[in-house]
């Protein structure tokens, strides 16, 4: 599948790709996909926006307040 993505990008059947998660992490700096001019590689920040940071900050603040009151924090595995 990785080869198919590279092939389609290299021949122009795909105009471009923005990649945020990779088949191997960290992605080796010599990975051939990084040589293509129509590829943008991001380090897990593709979904980061001002709005998402605001939501994260509110969730963290809310959990701090919950812990202060002796409640369990929300959105955790415990």
Automatic annotation (TrEMBL):
Superkingdom, natural source: Bacteria
Molecular function GO labels: NAD binding; oxidoreductase activity
Alphabetically ordered keywords of this record: Oxidoreductase
Domain D-isomer specific 2-hydroxyacid dehydrogenase NAD-binding: 3-46
Protein name per its UniProtKB record: Phosphoglycerate dehydrogenase-like enzyme
Protein source organism: Tunturiibacter empetritectus
Lineage per the UniProt record: Bacteria, Pseudomonadati, Acidobacteriota, Terriglobia, Terriglobales
């Amino acid at each position: 599948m990785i080869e198919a993505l590279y092939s389609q990008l290299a021949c122009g059947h795909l105009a471009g790709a923005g990649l945020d998660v990779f088949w191997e992490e960290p992605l080796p700096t010599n990975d051939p996909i990084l040589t293509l001019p129509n590829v943008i590689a991001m380090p897990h920040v593709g979904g980061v926006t001002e709005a998402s940071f605001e939501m994260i900050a509110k969730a963290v603040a809310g959990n701090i307040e919950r812990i202060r009151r002796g409640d369990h924090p929300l959105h955790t595995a415990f």
